[in-house]
Amino acid sequence: MSFLVELPPDQYDRDAFANFSGTSTGFDLGVARAMMWMSQLAYETHVPETITEISDLWHLSGLGLVSKPARSTLPLTDTRGIIARKDGATIVAFAGTDPLHLLNWVSDFSLGRPKDEVHEGFRDAAAAVWGQVKGVLSNAVARGSPIFIAGHSLGAAIAVMTADFARRELALGAAQIYLYGCPRVGRDDFVAPYDLAFGTSTYRLVHGADIVPTVPPPLLGFHHVGGYLHCASGGRFNVDTPPLAVGSDEPMADAGVGQQLGNLFIGISENTRSDAVGNLSVLLPPGIGDHLPDRYCAALTP
Questions:
Q1: How far apart are CA 64 and CA 285, in angstroms?
Q2: I need a surface site. Which of 140, 152, 248, 254 has the fewest CB within 10 A?
Q3: Which fold has domain 3-14+27-299?
Q4: Where do the structural domains in the chain lie, given as residue ranges?
């Protein structure tokens, strides 16, 4: 995994769960903050000392790591995630892809023409770990534990697929699903039943000029799930602005490939880190810089 998405323990927010409620229903900015930080922690599955230190800091229990090679048409090596319990709730969060591969990733989405109801790369990445995650969610359903599923970037698409696997195989009908920088996952045949089950409890957050939520484009038949919430580059998500109703294909719903790639280089993505890696990240095109997980964490910090 790239150094651009890893954080040293001293840069993790000790108050990430300060406003988390395991019984929360409906969009909750405190929960959104906690779920984004969980998605950030999922990038550290190969650094067990960081996982241990931060899980102790946040008083998480039942910790489990997900890391398995994925056979995928997308440029990724494995599917990574983290499982935990907090305040009686079960949390499953997934990491995304290496930002240094992102241009190839976007090209695959925009220029390829997959024919299935969902992009096979998303399905395969989620399927790689479904056996492990299925057991966790099945136990949570049996216990009546509230379920939170989250992810950043490709991890957000994996979160969507995981919720849908659970809908189909476990009859899961209630979960809070938080997505950060999520691409369009599937076509109408996938989106319609997903949104019927989880549309009003799926919250899709987009920071600044993040390019990933603009792909694959609707002209290829792909659509977003859940409700949409946007904040400006370097800004904050607003507790007074609830997500748009289910059905929005923003951002850049009508953009072609040329406009998508042009938007990649408009503006500047502000550094939110306090180390040399953060200083280097300002050299990235804004459409990629705004996609970095630390930018989303900062946009959810009060």
A1: 35
A2: 254
A3: Rossmann fold (3.40.50)
A4: 3-14+27-299
